[in-house]
Recover the amino acids of this structure.
């Protein structure tokens, strides 16, 4: 199914997109998110190139822009897709959940952009700042407090990692504050959490502080 008004690439361009994308080890849930957004078919199982070939031109073009071209969009959606895939690459054979509501000990339900489950338990949570100014101290404190609330709740007992990604960088005081907050937990083994920050530079996410 191809949306009306969307130019048909023809086999040569679609084939070139598939040839490039099949090398990117794209997780299943990314293909599903993009196929849903682009109203595309998607082969449920099979080799990655066969699954890509089952997608429409619009979906292939979007995947190519996001992962091969590393392009940006005004809403920051492309950056979020890249961050989702980055987090997925860190947790092989784990379940990746998008926009997951997780309750904290306070009773508040936190909407987490990316949550990782292993054997039915949350082991990591992550969020990414895709647009705007670099992450500031206030934002890192808010992230820390949210993760701390989840960790102390019933569903956070196995939570061990918290990743704050940014496509727009971090202010120095924000990194220092998160590091200090993280270090303050090390004596309490039961509540130990590993806070990481990941910056998107040169078309790749890399951990800046642990």
């Amino acid at each position: 199914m191809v949306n009306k008004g969307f130019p048909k690439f023809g086999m040569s361009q679609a084939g070139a997109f598939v040839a490039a994308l099949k090398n990117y080890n794209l997780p299943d849930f990314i293909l599903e998110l993009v196929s849903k957004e682009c109203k595309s078919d998607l082969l449920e199982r099979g080799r990655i190139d066969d699954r890509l070939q089952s997608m429409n031109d619009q979906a292939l073009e979007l995947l190519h822009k996001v992962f091969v071209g590393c392009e940006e969009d005004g809403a920051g959606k492309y950056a979020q897709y890249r961050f989702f895939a980055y987090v997925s690459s860190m947790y092989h054979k784990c379940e990746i959940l998008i926009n997951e509501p997780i309750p904290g000990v306070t009773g508040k339900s936190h909407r987490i952009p990316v949550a990782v489950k292993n054997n039915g338990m949350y082991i990591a949570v992550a969020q990414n700042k895709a647009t705007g100014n670099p992450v500031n101290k206030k934002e890192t404190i808010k992230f820390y407090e949210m993760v701390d609330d989840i960790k102390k709740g019933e569903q956070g007992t196995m939570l061990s990692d918290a990743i704050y990604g940014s496509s727009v960088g971090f202010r120095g005081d924000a990194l220092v504050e998160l590091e200090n907050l993280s270090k303050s937990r090390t004596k309490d083994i039961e509540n130990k959490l590993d806070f990481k920050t990941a910056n998107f530079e040169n078309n790749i996410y890399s951990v800046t502080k642990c």
Remarks:
- Residues 1-6 have pLDDT under 50 and may be disordered.
